[in-house]
Specification:
The structure holds two protein chains of two kinds. Chain A is about 30% helix and about 20% strand. Chain A has two domains: about 120 residues, Rossmann fold (3-Layer(aba) Sandwich); about 80 residues, no CATH class. In chain A, helix 6 packs across helix 7. By secondary structure, chain A is α/β, with parallel strands linked by helices. The C terminus of chain A is likely disordered. A five-stranded parallel beta sheet of chain A has the order 2-1-3-4-5, with helices on both faces. In chain A, strands 6-7-8-9 form a four-stranded antiparallel beta sheet. In chain B, a hairpin with a 2-residue loop joins strand 6 and strand 7. In chain B, strands 2-1-3-4-5 form a five-stranded parallel beta sheet, with helices on both faces. Chain B has a four-stranded antiparallel beta sheet with strand order 6-7-8-9, with helices on one face. Chain B has a three-stranded antiparallel beta sheet with strand order 10-12-11. The chains are: A alpha/beta, B alpha/beta.
Amino acid sequence: MSPEEAGKQGLGVLARDTVRTILVVSDDGDMAVALHERVDRAYALVRDVRGEELPQGIAACAPWPWMLVGATPTIPSGSLAELKERPVIIHWMAGKEPEGLPAHAQPFERFSQLAERVKTALTQEVAGMRLSLGLGVELPDGTLARSSELQALVSAHPYPFDVPLDAFRSAGRVLAQHRIGWRPARYQLPSGASGVALVDVGALEADGGLTERGGKA
Amino acid sequence: MRANAEVIILEDDAEKLEELRQHFIRKRFHPLTARSASRAISVLRNNLESSRPILAIVDWDLSNSPDHAFTSTDFLSVLARDVPDCLVIVYSANVDSFRVRSEIHRAHPRSWLHDKREGDQSLIDRVDRMLDQTVEDLRVKDGSVVIHIPTKDEHHHREAVRLVVHYPEIVTFHSDTATKAVRRFGDWLARHNSKVTLISHGNRKYRLTVLK
């Protein structure tokens, strides 16, 4: 490959990778720079993209971005459709949320609040499960689970995802295989928000049981 | 016998480039040097089959470069795509600027930034700290050997060095040959009862962790 061809392959930020990624979409990159400063790079890669690059940015994060952070009032419609099918944590600056974002997208008035939530998501612990460095979830028995769905559920806990329950099958399998008494279920929080979250099966059964589809009866 | 580990340096100032080159020769590295981004891309691509640099040092501002066909952004993007297992340090006098930081990280999201205003020695000290990494009972020597400190046994493989200098981050290895070398290093750590162990994340991704 000549230098001409090599140089035209595109920005490194759009190179495909499977590590845990925080995809930051903004008009000027300031928010991504600030997050770079605050996020331990061993835990997550921060990618700084512009609105028109979002489809390529999402495609570069395999299987999908762990988190999408935004400050742009519009994003391509194709990207919106993808975000409704996959458990991507979504944080946005308040007042700039694009129309049609999944219901689990959370607005933040101040960047410092958003950055704190990112930190919480990276260090979250649920039933002895916590995020491993870079990728996956460390289970209570010491195993490393690569399930991106489980990674999303642990990070977002207790906030639910506005995504079909079927999108969490691999998380359910991992939890069952390792005999962890939690599972993804359609769930309604006291706040009224509903969606799929990790639930303690024992506690839910005591509270009225689960429906056939995993939802609260 | 061991091959010296490569370092690729892109610096438009000939005098400073030579100073860096001599420093790495003294440290027993094999420096690959370029004064322009197009030359750096050629050097990298021409050597990729036989060797992959452990470290890239990139001057962000290439105004004195002999040609301007490509920029430091182009070179950093090639590094990010083709050699993601290479440590990258970018230095600039404008590293405080949000715009410059954003441009650098868009070209190479994993690059480390260094402030040029802190002087040449500061850059060399920073690079030496990155390369002469110690993790628990392991130490890197000359960029090409990992030493198990209690036994003084040596493991001669640059993929092992990559893992130690990237600690605690994940490294994505480029070939099955490289991952075999990594697994041999994992076995070597176990045989030496090292406090450091190898973790596989699948898809040729590995990292080191310290046993509790």
